[in-house]
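Re: the request from the purification team.
They wanted to know what the chain is likely to look like in 3D before they choose a buffer screen. I agreed to run a prediction and write the result into the notebook, where they can find it.
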Amino acid sequence: MIIYYGTKKKLKHVKQLGRMRCTNCGHEVDASLTKEGGYFHIFFIPVFPVFGYKMIFCPNCGIMKKLTSEEFKEMKESNP
């Protein structure tokens, strides 16, 4: 019997933050608030979450800066 299992991650863009200076590349970019999550799958059916990160994504250099839950909530509720 063969059992298919694995993980799959997805990125979800929550909010555009507007123009910000990237801490990695130093460019002014339109950064976005992003959530990354993943599920463990058995036979292509998601069973339970295995990880989840909240981050800011820079489209210029591709860096993803991880945020704490408090920082994420504060940025999500603020106006751009």
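For the purification team: The chain has a mean pLDDT of 85.
Please add any questions underneath this entry.
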